[in-house]
Design goal:
The chain is α/β, with parallel strands linked by helices. The protein has 5 domains: 7-211, no CATH class; 216-357, no CATH class; 382-442, no CATH class; 449-501 and 541-736, von Willebrand factor, type A domain (Rossmann fold, 3-Layer(aba) Sandwich); 506-535, no CATH class. The protein has an 8-stranded mixed sheet, with helices on both faces. A 3-stranded mixed sheet has the order 2-4-3, covered by helices on one side. Helix 22 (561-577) links the parallel strand 12 (545-552) and strand 13. 33% of the residues are buried.
Length: 737
């Protein structure tokens, strides 16, 4: 990109900037920004600091930022241009003051949004955490996506913050397009004019000397490490340099893709993307060879890429492009997903396309052995002999097995390890040591089982095929699911205790026994052993109940889907702890012409998602993978549920069906009074089987909607506030029982 103009810094501007910065850093301004950040982040204990290290960051409890970040405020030409672009009024006489305030406010908004929405306990996958170079890249890449997510959320929730965030992003580009020149000379001249000497002069220089940004430091370290490896290993070093160039290219490409304050033509076609990727890879590998002349540059880049393709046996441009195309859907979903657990799952998925490109820090054999020894001393690494020593200590009673957990990292599972190690692990597990194994990588990419059926397509649904998708858990979602459970642990304990209180028959307190199903036996009132109560044989136990849930996954549910996912996780865990069988289905109606040669056309396809409760190990992880889209053909989904319950129900249990909806039935050719009559008919058919049906309506209904919905589902509850969703669901289950 050619730079059309420059901004020359003068000594007088430096002297003015020094006074302005000292004034801006006063306590009253710090308190103003602190109060603003507390209000936005909803954290009254948040502490705000001004710093001078060219950084802006938050720990969740504190925000630290440098208002003179990258010396943006000194570039008056860029500040004017950015203010014009965002359409905000500014005074020509106080451009630097305006720049200081806008940079400070933009950074404050950004960090306060992190405090408000970011997940401070996001776990890093174990197989990543074991390698420092992967941890560094994982955090850097996830930070790019998380920054985009919180800013998208902020601008949607608070439209007034858009100009401030846009200003900061524009200044990053403007500072490159309109670079400052003569800064060092101006600072030196200003120091001379102020007659500064010694320490005072050094401090004056420090105000305008900016340390490199973190990502620049990491990039420099990686390149230096790869260069060392290249000198030590000719072939491996060359390959590492190319992979690092691909990774840095993907990182920059992702940043441009998720930015919301500019549109880039490179995303308009794959041809433009290929050209951009080729230029970036060439620049990373041979920056000195990239010429200003466009034609000569294109020839040079084409020659370099062709040489690399021949040497490596793979086209780096095509490989990089295919990785980005594979990552793109997950990136798009990440930046618009408000559920922290889902974002963790998506980041883990994105990282699978990056991790093999990230170079390890170069280290000699001696360095490697010293690092392994240090890890072992810290208890983070243990070999077979160490496991045998642990086994002997447990057998001798010297240590408590519950204080130890072992995680075996392997690509193909325990069974493919040495038999002796397998035997030691089994024995440790039998003694109470928690032993877990990373899953075989083949299971991470299993495809869902899809079945097409016309058995349930009758009446109003005669031309509508049913697509039944049995979801398969993605084991990479385990960390995200654990986090979601830990976030709601207090609620889980509360609801589990409520179930236990409801179903437990043996109670010490006579009053409790009366409440949960014992009755007073009048013939025993004179008994000397004070046994006044007799057991009510009709009292229900937890194991006598079976619960089926049908969730509307139509597009209108997108605004509440995160709360629904959280509620389903709590419901699953509560039922699991209370030994209540639970099956969860989702449904939507959409078009899918790929399922047959025939065009099912106008009415589309009803899709049933079998989410959890169908005998697949770890299927609870599928709860983090549900999405909303399409429309809702409720009657068709109820027909399938009725058939499933009739085939798999246990007549000794009381069967309950819970539906979660946010509106009336609406699909192509299926809406209004006919659709409502169909739903009412299907609900009655289910109730005739002895199944209790409760519907949960999400949102606030009008009187007319309430009348229509009540006609379809005689037993329903209306949830106006989403934080009441799970309590309402559980209270409804109690009432049905």
């Amino acid at each position: 990109m050619t730079r059309s103009r420059q901004h020359r810094v003068s000594a007088s501007q430096i002297l003015l900037a020094k006074r302005l910065l000292e004034t801006f850093l006063q306590e009253k301004n710090r308190r103003r920004e602190e109060q603003f950040a507390r209000l936005l982040s909803k954290n009254p204990d948040l502490v705000f600091y001004f710093i001078s290290s060219n950084r802006a960051y938050t720990t969740g409890q504190t925000i630290c930022l440098d208002p003179s970040y990258q010396n943006y405020y000194l570039n008056e030409t860029a500040v004017k241009k950015a203010m014009e672009r965002i359409g905000m009024h500014f005074d020509e006489n106080i451009i630097m003051s305006t720049g200081l305030f806008m940079v400070s406010r933009g950074l404050t908004l950004h960090e306060a949004l992190h405090v408000l929405k970011s997940d401070w306990k996001t776990p890093i996958p174990v197989d990543v955490a074991m390698h420092p170079h992967l941890v560094k890249a994982y955090r850097q890449f996830s930070n790019i996506l998380e920054d985009s997510f919180i800013e998208n959320y902020g601008m949607a929730e608070f439209p007034g913050m858009r100009p401030y965030l846009a200003f900061f992003h524009l200044m990053g580009r403007m500072n490159y397009q309109i670079p400052m020149v003569g800064l060092e000379e101006a600072v030196k001249k200003a120091a001379d004019q102020s007659k500064l000497r010694g320490i005072a002069r050094d401090k004056f220089y420090e105000v305008f000397r900016k340390v490199p940004l973190i990502d620049e430091v990491w990039e420099s370290e990686w390149k230096s490490s790869v260069e060392e490896k290249s000198q030590a290993e000719d072939d491996g070093g060359r390959e590492s340099k190319l992979k690092l160039a691909q990774y840095l290219c993907l990182e920059k490409l992702t940043y441009l893709f998720v930015e919301r304050f500019a549109s880039y033509k490179i995303f308009d076609s794959q041809k433009l993307l290929r050209t951009w990727i080729a230029e970036e890879i060439a620049f990373e590998l041979e920056p000195a060879e990239i010429l200003d002349n466009k034609k000569e540059r294109e020839v040079k880049i084409a020659s370099l890429i062709e040489t690399l393709s021949e040497e490596m046996g793979i086209s780096p441009v095509e490989d990089t492009l295919s990785r980005f195309i594979a990552m793109r859907p997950s990136i798009e979903r990440f930046v618009r997903t408000d559920h922290a657990g889902v974002r963790t799952v998506l980041m883990n998925e994105i990282f699978t396309y990056l991790r093999d490109l990230i170079p390890e820090e170069y280290e000699t054999e001696k360095d490697r052995l010293e690092r392994l020894a240090e890890l072992e001393r810290e208890g983070q690494l243990i070999d077979k002999e160490g496991l045998e020593d642990l086994l002997e200590s447990i057998k001798a009673g010297d240590v408590n097995p519950e204080n130890y957990s072992i995680r075996l990292i392997t690509g193909e599972g325990v069974s493919e390890q040495a038999p002796e190690l397998d035997e030691v692990l089994r024995e440790l597990s039998s003694l109470g040591v928690e032993v877990t194994t990373e899953a075989n990588q083949r299971t991470l990419f299993m495809k869902p089982d899809v079945e097409i059926s016309h058995l349930f397509s009758k009446g109003m649904h005669e031309n509508v095929p049913l697509k039944i998708v049995t979801m398969v858990p993605d084991l990479r979602a385990r960390d995200g699911y654990r986090h979601a459970v830990s976030k709601h642990r207090r609620q889980l304990n509360k609801y589990t205790d409520a179930f236990r209180h409801l179903f437990e028959v043996e109670r010490k307190s006579p009053i409790d026994r009366q409440l949960i199903g014992s009755t007073l036996d009048s013939r025993r009132l004179a008994s000397m052993d004070r046994k006044y109560w007799k057991k009510d044989l009709h009292c229900m136990k937890a194991e006598d109940i079976s619960l089926t849930v049908l969730v509307d996954l139509s597009g209108s549910m997108s605004s509440v889907m995160n709360e629904v996912i959280d509620s389903l996780i709590i419901l699953y865990e509560t039922c699991n702890r209370s030994d209540i069988p639970l099956a969860i289905f989702g449904h939507e109606s959409s078009y899918d012409f790929g399922i047959s040669e025939h065009n099912f056309a106008l009415e589309g396809v009803t899709v049933i998602y079998k989410i959890t409760g169908f005998g697949i190990k770890n299927d609870h992880l599928c709860l983090l993978d549900i999405e909303s889209g399409g429309s809702n053909r409720d009657g068709h989904a109820l027909i399938y549920c009725r058939d499933w319950i009739s085939r798999f129900r246990d007549d000794e249990r009381k069967n309950l069906l819970l539906t979660i909806n946010d509106g009336l039935p609406a699909a192509d050719g299926y809406y209004g009074e006919p659709a409502e009559r169909d739903v009412r008919y299907q609900v009655e058919k289910i109730k005739q089987m002895g199944v209790e049906v409760l519907s949960v309506y999400l949102g606030e209904m009008t009187d007319e909607q309430r009348k229509s919905f009540g006609a379809m589902y005689p037993d329903y509850v209306e949830v106006k506030e989403m934080d009441r969703l799970i309590p309402t669901i559980l209270e409804g289950i109690f009432q049905m029982m």
